[in-house]
Amino acid sequence: SYELTQPPSVSVSPGQTAKITCSGDALPKQYAYWYQQRPGRAPVLVIYQDSQRPSGIPERFSGSSSGTKVTLTISGVQAEDEADYYCQSADTSDSSWVFGGGTKLTVL
Amino acid sequence: QVQLVQSGAEVKKPGASVKVSCKASEYTFTDYFIHWVRQAPGQGLEWMGWINPNTGGTKYAQDFQGRVTMTRDTSITTAYMEVSSLTPDDTAVYYCARPQRDEAVTGDAFDIWGQGTVVTVSS
């Protein structure tokens, strides 16, 4: 089955830039989406269609795509950004949804 | 505002079934699919399937086929997800979620989530 691969963890100091990657063979043809999940809370959509930001999401969150990899970038990281981040896309082989394994962002 | 409100926590014994509800409000219930996603303790998100509230049509992820049933009651704008033959591995938080678009697009983002329902399976 189709898989999206994320690094298990990323650490960054406050004010620095965090980059979280997600790799998948179909990403050149399928959009990717990013969710933030804080402990005990439901996921929140932070990026859709590779690089679009929903209303209410701070401008420091951005997304990009290059070949089989998409990247979530958080500029000027704040303590409140410490959370798990998941990428999501489509598995068109069986019309299903697929999530990456998640990346824990630690703000040092 | 648009929201999905789920039923409360459940504790079940192995072999039992559990049915979780998801009540939609402040939008036309039949215009958007409802998806279910689960998250085992300390683990990632796992897509389970969807129901089309307009037609009742369903699609289940391969790992859940034969054990999961999704239904809806349009009169009370509520979707349901039932898991049968529970094992301790089914212990998880179960979420319902609504896609961004009111059309069937595989892989579309989820912009509205329920608060989650904790299901614990233990003897």
Task: Give an overview in words.
The complex is a heterodimer of chains A (108) and B (123). Chain A has strands at residues 9-12, 18-23, 33-37, 44-47, 61-66, 69-74, 83-91, 96-99, 103-107. Chain A has 108 residues and is mostly beta strands. Chain A is globular and about 40 Å long. The mean pLDDT of chain A is 96. Chain B is mostly beta strands and 123 residues long. Helix content of chain B is 0%, strand content 49%. Chain B has no helices and eleven strands. The model of chain B has no long low-confidence stretch (mean pLDDT 96). Chain A binds chain B through residues 1, 30-31, 33, 35, 37, 42-45, 48-49, 54, 86, 88-92, 94-102, and chain B through 35, 37, 44-47, 59, 61-62, 95, 100, 106-107, 109-111, 113-116.
Percent helix of chain B: under 10%
What is the radius of gyration of chain A computed over CA atoms, rounded to a whole number of angstroms? 13 Å
Total count of strands of chain A: 9
Structural class of chain B: mainly beta
- Largest sheet report of chain B: 7 strands, mixed
Characterize the largest beta sheet of chain A: strand count, sense, and whether it forms a barrel: 6 strands, mixed
Helix fraction of chain A? under 10%
Mean of all residue-level pLDDT scores of chain B: 96
- What oligomeric state is this? heterodimer
Listing every helix as H and every strand as E from the N terminus to the C terminus, the arrangement of chain A reads EEEEEEEEE
Shape of chain A: globular
String of helices and strands of chain B: EEEEEEEEEEE
* Coarse morphology of chain B: globular
Largest interface comes to: A-B, 28 and 20 residues
How many separate helices of chain A?
0
State which percent range the strand residues of chain A make up: over 45%
Span from first to last CA of chain A?
A: 36 Å
Secondary structure tally: strands of chain B: 11
Number of helices of chain B: 0
Structural class of chain A: mainly beta
